[in-house]
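OP here, attaching both records as promised.
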Amino acid sequence: MKPTRLLKLFHFVIFSLCLSVTAPPPPPVPPIISADQWGSKPLPLPDSAKHTPKILTIHHAGVLWRPTDEPYAKIRNLQSWGRKEMNWPDLPYHFLISPDGKIFTGRDIQYRPESNTQYDLTGVVNIHLWGNFEKQRVSPEQLASLVALTAHLCHTHGLDPAQIRGHSDAAPGQTACPGRDLQRYIAQGLIQKWTTQSLAGEMPTIKTLAALENGPTTQITTTPPASQPSR
């Protein structure tokens, strides 16, 4: 066989192999309630606050979630409180997840977040889960939505799941956030593992761990109130 024909055959084989090795499909985009949908009223943010997302940092509210709590009211109240008490022009978090798994858009992701602790916020994407996970247990719905969101963000922004961390990892000695019940999923690498599996096109088996011996043992309430308050 002539060298030219051999070269063409080689190229054909390589091309066929490339076609057979396809990249996994992108992870599904989770339903996300937009800032407009929940009635956000942010103040303008300066161009100097713009950044490129690099790290996902997970938080809890640190406040007990009660059966009568309603996420639309909670998120608007948080925005109002931050503006009045902390002089924050918008929410300190980019995404917020309610106990029933609803994901809300917070601050525009192209801007740095805020924090009441001291650490470099450039490149940080803040994800907040409502509840106090020092005293309550994170819900299965929150975990599933958290993984769906982290996988979507990692895919969209080219982030490494190994860069998923808890607030206390970013600001050691300053906070217990995101609470011991949630932090263990990060410390044991479960959130990172489930995110990696989602990016690979797999369906991760997301399960809540058994209650810690020293608590918390109380499961957070996932049933939302029958109606949401008006804006």
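Record two, same layout:
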Amino acid sequence: MLPTCQSSNVDNDQRTVGISEGLTRMGEVHRLLDEKGRTGLLSDPSLGVSRTVVEAASSYMSCEAGEVGYLYSGWAQSALPHKRLANDASWQVRTDYVSLLVEPGKRHTQVGDAIPVGVPYGSRARLIILYLQSEAIRTNSREVELGRSLHAWLRKLGISIGGSSMAAVRDQAERISRCRMSFQIKQGNRTGLINQNILDTAMFVDAEVDGQQGCLFVETAKLSEMFFEQLKRHPVPVEESAIKSISNNSQAIDIYCFLAYRLHALSVPTLVSWKGLMDQFGAGVSALFKFRQQFRSTLELAMAVYPEAKVEVLAKGVILYPSPPPVSPKIVSMAPRRKQEIVGYSIAGHT
């Protein structure tokens, strides 16, 4: 489902010249990488391809076909904050069909009142949530190890697990473990509410950070039963190699997951208005023109790791074209999981 969508038959004179050309040639970037290589493409400024896009596309193309990750479809229609909020602040994203509310949890103290730890944010929070969901689907179990297994998975994605980087992972893991979220999803005249913690239980252990004891880290976690059931019913498969190539850009991850969820389910080109896109991806951005500029460059980055995606930017919004999914149904069916336990994914789309 998409905010402010409609089937589109847009005349050529309505197109934003230059912007639409830049996006529809993303497939051309991958072809040029095959022909010229990364260095050759970067050394030719006449092609007008940003270094960030070239690096992401090159990284993606150099990866061997790897693991399939999974996320709940609600995450493909909403997003966590990109930057840190005040520790006691809640976060809400509203679109025409989905509303996400995330409330911060609190940490118990030896004396005085409990301390709010803040809502999860940024790329590391998204990677941990993706890991939790992927492992739960692969093992068909609500219980997930976050210790050495999470470390190994982050290494595979090229994420450092030492120093400040690991401290950030610990911080986001605790925020995820303690926060409370609710998804409100509208289908026709029906509205469903998933109002529960992501996790039912978490086992915290003392960890040493910069030589200091007393920091908490989540060692094991158990997904809440309701969230796990919704995940199994509405999983969105994504390529871990794609996530690896954009792992430091939280908005690119959001847009990639949105395209992975939406494009293959379309039967006709569909226009999404700038307002609809800003509702989902631009919370916290003050002006629409700033969001449009930011979204365009980040969309190019997301498409750099999704070569089959067909998207075009216009003055009115973005046209999504029917496109193959990033993970073929054949690969999904071969993934190491109990296939009969997962309903909701098909080439026709997600429900």
